[in-house]
Amino acid sequence: MTRYLNLALICTMILVVAAVYQIKYDAETAAETVRGLKAEVDKEREAIALLKAEWSLLNQPARLQALVERHPDYLELVPLDPIQIGELSEIPMRPEPVDETTASIEDGQ
Amino acid sequence: MTRLRALFGRSRPGIQPGDAGPFVFEGAQKRSAAVSRFRLVVTMAGFAVVFGAIAVRLVMLGFAAQPEARFGTTAADSVAAARPELHDRNGELLAADIKTASLYAEPIKLVDPDEALDKLAGVLTDLDVETMRKRFRSNAGFVWVKREISPKLQAEIHRLGVPGIGFVNENRRVYPGGPAASHIIGHVDIDNKGIAGIEKYIDGQGLADLQALGFATARTTDLKPVRLSIDLRVQHVVRDELENAMEKYKAIAAAGIVLDVETGEVVGMSSLPDYDPNEPAGALKKDRINRCTAGVFELGSTFKVFTTAMALDSGKVGLDSKFDARSPIRIGRYSIDDFHGKRRVLTVPEVFIFSSNIGTAKMAQAIGIETQRAYFGRFGMLDRLQTELPEIGAPILPSHWTELASMTISFGHGISVTPMQAAVAAAALVNGGRLIPPTFFRRTAAEADVLATAVIAPETSAAMRELLRLNVIKGSGKRAAVDGYLVGGKTGTAEKVVDGRYAPTKRLNTFLAAFPMDAPRYLVLVLLDEPQRAEGAYGATAAVNAAPTTGAIIGRIAPMLGISPRRPDVDDAEKLASN
After folding, report:
1. How confident is the model at residue B520 (pLDDT cuts 50, 70, 90)?
2. Which residue does chain B place closest to A51, by CA atoms?
3. Would you say B98 and B190 are in contact if contact means Cβ atoms under 8 Å apart?
4. What are chain B's domains?
């Protein structure tokens, strides 16, 4: 009886050891992948920072102004004049369709 | 017996052989068994505790959060510490870190220093060969060859395959705007430490400590961007218009400030000539100082704004008080006269819009020396300005605040302050009398209210708004008028001191403006240093150069800042002008 029990325990132990080894191995592979991904994320972050800086460089007001001044015929952009800004209340109502019924109502009032 | 006794002898002292009674042998055997079982249990318990502890610790380790694995952390990481990005108030990038490579050599490992150097010199054309040769032949363990090289060069050097040289990645600070906001942002040294402007300020706020402890290394990506109060577009407009003005009026320098009068936020600030923070060596040139906060100037007639405000606020002068400006004031060998003398009795608004030195000096006389000094103290003009920028100039005050000094100070001579101090004090005059310390970071109106101190009464502030508007409608500020916006302002044409004397040909012109005048939101201060007469102009006073420059700035920035223009027919100040 004890012999079978021991045998079973030894078998279990071997299995468990094998399983632990496998898990450890997997974990190492996973860590390797994580390391690789992290490096990649770092690289992407750097690339993003570089692109953001470049975007900002290309969008500098001074640069845009120079471009607008150099290509007036093509871009046709001029500085905003305060006179161009209006308010909603300044927009006239849509002219009402000339219609006898509305005309008569307005006359009535 | 002896065996038993020996056995008992080893047993615990509590069990005595004498206790056994008559049936010694049986009892002894039983007891012996009990003792060994007891020992067994103790031993097992001991092992159980030890293994239990190990098991518990293992479980704990298993559940504990994995500490961040730091692979490849080298000295190189701490060379160039990470800095937070700087953004403008709308989130536009002002400064950022990008990675660059720096080339180093380990002379001790160089097989043939001369060959290595020849190869490198072939790629790095600007290398100082002789100095490098000395360094390469030394027994040093590490020398920098060139910091911050481009990726293309890096690839070429890599291809040379010279043993004993290598690259470290460093963070390099880039300023996409170049000189656009150089005096505000400041710059960093080659080790990415802030040495000027806001860059230096944020180092002082604990970033430097973090870097020293190694927390803010090149890998740190979670530094939060720092958001400033400036608006990049406004900043550009101010700089662009100042540049135009410098060219048009051949001025040697110019400065401009746009301040939010409700919050004290600096929305734009430029001082020309400036420098490109990407090449900070330019900052060392003598004329590159920040004239807005570090330079102190006698601001001339612009100071009449402050004198008039304190005269009205003290209650000793009313808007309808009259001052005799028919003849110059003589004190000792000095005489105070008007630039465009009217030679008649003037009311306060007339003194203001004709910019009468005599009238203003008499106003100062009316309020008294002590009161004048107290008001200047309240306006924050007697001490250094408190703000985030490290480059702050201290005002130059008269050594003795005599009656003559009091009179000249009333129209801006004999006291030198930074333009920022004047802007901050003027903001208080138009915003209802609340002096708000300026800031280069975001601040809400509620936060500003906590910091604000009342310096003049709201009624005085209202009177000042009318006077400033009146000066643009019919006084010296006419050329600052902008269609659709109620601009109010005051000119200042000061003669510069050259070799201890006022030089009539060297002027410092200022224009102090606020808009929209019925409920001011922004204050604009423009300063031109030694402007010359422009073609077609009749002079070189502030009215013909600083005022139109200010008008041009306001016309461009007002729509950007979301101030809606008015139709001329709603311009209530016309009514004011007819009074």
Report:
1. very high
2. B98
3. no
4. 1-31 (no CATH), 78-227 (3.90.1310.10), 234-578 (3.40.710.10)
